[in-house]
Amino acid sequence: MGASVGRSSSPPAEPDGRVLSKDGMAALVEVLLRRGFTVVGPTVRDGAIILAELGSADELPYGWGVELDAGRYRLRERPDGAAFANAAGPQSWKPFLHPPRVREWSADRVEGELVLTADVTAPPRYAFLGVRPCDLRAIAIQDRILTGGAYRDPVYEGRRSGALLIAVECTEPGATCFCVSMGTGPAAGPGYDLVMTEVVDGDGHRFWVRGGSPEGEEILAELPAPPADRETREAARSGVTAAADRMGRTMPEADLRELMAGTLDAPRWDDVAGRCLTCGNCTMVCPTCFCVTTEDVTDLTGEHAERWRLWDSCFDLDFSHLPGGPVRASSRSRYRQWMTHKLGTWHDQFGSSGCVGCGRCIVWCPVGIDITEEAAALFDWTSSGAPEDEEVAP
To answer: Who contacts 112 (Cβ-Cβ below 8 Å, separation ≥6)?
Structure first.
């Protein structure tokens, strides 16, 4: 399976769709709530644009953008009042589909007998409003990992099966975005129920909306949205095309799978290990990382116990712990494991890259380690005639 990067091919021609006004966006949220969905979308809270449950469209981040860089995130006001002209925030949709903490079962001693009770709490039926193309691809990747194989995750499957995905194409990439390099944006790929592109120009503030599933088409039919005019469609397409030329980061134009496999002994791993805190922030904010561990807890009486499933990280020293000690004891080996798996051996396991180019790992790294910069350094090392007889460090 190839892993080369570069500009994605042109998407197929879109349907004409409809035009939704700002008032129509309010109607969309009302329709979703009336249909019984728990609506989750971007909103401003605690100095960031986060994902949270919405009670109305008024809670969307109208007039707010972001300034991003390695290890840096700041809100900034926008004069145009756009709702979705901001890059990926600290959360992906992963916590809603693959929660960081899940109780799997509890056990109680009742009259001398052990009674086990599975946790079968019914999940909410989510409507995700504002799914970026990179996150849309990330959801598709997690679908394949957590529901597409022999061992299906019932927690993820239960939450994902009823979820409605409303994608928003990107017209304002951030300084750390590189979705074009990974072929995941800024235009939305398949998998959405509805997709919209925001347009703010001399003709007003509006959204070009198209259906992607029967349910999405039904919802669109309930909205006060006239057929899209040619000017709106062209303005929307132009905004997405322009965004592709304004990516803040790029991956080297190389086969990343081969690059990772051929640079295991590169001195760059020592350089990045000297900066990496092995805190695991990159895995926590990554929309595709999925590793978990389990933890058993009991109360003081010993009469009640619970098993919890928790997110885990390959940066944790205990992640690879065996009876003889951890397999990857050094920060060098742990960072190398994460990056070479994400960009390389993920292809062997799941048939695609594990990176979607959202840039969150760059922004939320406390010391500003940049995965695109590290990949470029490895590429430069191979291009400069790297020695082939060095011993691979652990």
So the answer is: none
Let me know: does 180 contact 242? Beta carbons within 8 Å. no
**Overall average pLDDT of the 339-349 stretch:** 95
Contact 372, 270 (CB under 8 A): no
In which band, very low, low, confident or very high, does the pLDDT at 122 lie, cut at 50, 70 and 90?
A: confident
Q: Give per-residue pLDDT as tens, 156-197.
A: 999 999 999 999 999 999 999 999 999 999 999 999 999 999
